[in-house]
Amino acid sequence: MANYSFHTYAPDVLVYDSATGTFTLSSSYDFKTDRNLVEYSDDDSRFDGSDEGDPVGEDGNQVGTAYDDQGNVIEAGDVYVMGYAELEAPDGTTITIDRIEVDGVHVGYVPSQPLVPGTIYEVTFYEDVDDENTLGHSYYTTNSVPCFDAITLIETPDGPMAAGDVLPGHLVMTLDRGPQPVQWRCDRRVDLRQARDADLPVFIPADALGAGRPARDLIVSGQHRILLGHVAQGAGLAPTEMLVPAKALIGQLRGVRFMRGRRIARWVHLALEHHQIVTANGAYAESLLLRQVCVNTLLPAQRHCLERLIASGKIQSPATPARPCLGASAAQRMMASMRPQSGRGAFATQVSERERYFSLH
Q: How much is the pTM?
């Protein structure tokens, strides 16, 4: 059976007030201590629920243990989501929150994005997750749309800001249209211990794409597209400006590799009105290219929030790509064909057979 894990907000710091129908995250919240760890195993692809009042999960094989921040066991047994709610933040953002239980013991909440200490969130919808409804493990452990590592610095008019701190309404700098507001963001944590290579983060070292591109090491998901063929980035790697998946750079540029051994990734998705090229750690990379395949991977509340933004015209969908986009295989063929023209400098890199094997397998 596959193993999974995720952290929850501890129930004593994220408190529900039934009189007002609100959740409040304590102003003294400390992410290092006010959280619990849930580790569990399962033999299928679903994260099952349980009827209200029934401390036994629907899936008898979905079992595990919850620990507090000191490593003490809180409870062991059936692991399941009891229910979920839709919250409205003060800025109007819709957030989904799941109530997690282990053998009848409430061990915490998992929101669809980080909550702000001292903030009150209004509950706009709630329902139990019963035996016949299922959530995929992908909610907690997979990432299927392009995204930034949370510590990636996104260029804004006021200087670099960590992707994890960027919120709807914040302005970010774009290559084509200058400052543009973020319309939607999603933050998720992913367990990488059982991940395939295709799901591993891609590490792009400083200067791999040209001088100062990136200015510091950059970590993105494998499918996150990077700009090539620009005079300042990836010149000589493409006949014109194109966007290619980060994983296509493995074996083509010195030092670009899958990050093995990392246990957890925190990914941030940023969507603007239009598909844009933003600056991440000094490198040109895409914002979220919103297509139906991306929308289909979201939770109902996240999808509902996006659909409202699309209906209001705040986000273009289906989005027009900021540049032509290539798949990984086509991008690698293109770079290989361009190599004789670009010489054997920083871009066209010799890779030993051993390095190539461990990069591609």
A: 0.58
